[in-house]
Amino acid sequence: MLKLTRKVEYALIALRYMDRNKDRRCASAKEISDLYHIPLSLLSKILQTLSKVEIIQAVQGAHGGYILNINPEDFSMTELINILEGPLGIMDCSIDSECSQLDTCNIKSPITKVNNAIINVLNNITLADISEQQSTGLKI
Questions:
Q1: Do 26 and 67 touch, CB atoms closer than 8 A?
Q2: In the chain, what percentage of residues exceed pLDDT 90?
Q3: Dihedral of CA 77/83/87/90: which sign?
Q4: Which H or E run includes 65?
Q5: C-alpha angle with apex 43: 42 to 44, nearest 5 degrees?
Q6: Please, are residues 13 and 50 in contact by the beta-carbon 8 Å criterion?
Q7: Partners of 58 in beta bridges
Q8: Residue 96, phi-psi category: left (phi > 0), alpha (psi -120 to 50), beta (remainder)
Q9: Rounded to an integer, what distance in angstroms lies between the CA atom of residue 78 and that of residue 46?
Q10: What is the pLDDT of residues 73-95, one digit of tens each?
């Protein structure tokens, strides 16, 4: 089954929250964790990773937290997945040429087409697209 990891899911939730609250203040990991029932330790690690690559900015102090440091229209799903999980590939040979079947593989070409199509779709979905979607009962 092809699906997003929890790390990517939680990162998207946090980034969407920061984007929709950018005019108010910075958001703490605890605030986001409590609001969306995300394990605080995992969310903190995700936010630290995003801060290191300057997707978000960490603000120190009593009223500190994180603020979005990028234009949501310029940040794609592919970029987020690459930051948190590494290169996107539906099979190992999509991202690694060390497969023992590589010379005799009869599905590499069609799988490469599928992989490229998925990457194309994710390249065209931005954080702004995700942030614009209507909420379905969840808080911002």
A1: yes
A2: 64
A3: negative
A4: strand 65-68
A5: 90
A6: no
A7: 66
A8: beta
A9: 16
A10: 999 999 999 999 998 888 877 77
Find where tokens 């900015």 sit: 57
Q: Which residue has the tokens 């808080």?
A: 139
Contacts 24+ apart (CB under 8 A), 132-137: none
Q: What are the mean pLDDT values of the chain's consecutive 10-residue runs (140 residues total)?
A: 88 95 85 97 98 95 90 96 91 75 83 92 94 59
Question: Could you write out the DSSP letters of every residue in 94-139?
Answer: HH-S--TTTTT-SSHHHHHHHHHHHHHHHHT-BHHHHHHSPPSSS-
How is domain 6-132 classified at the architecture level of CATH?
Answer: Orthogonal Bundle (1.10)
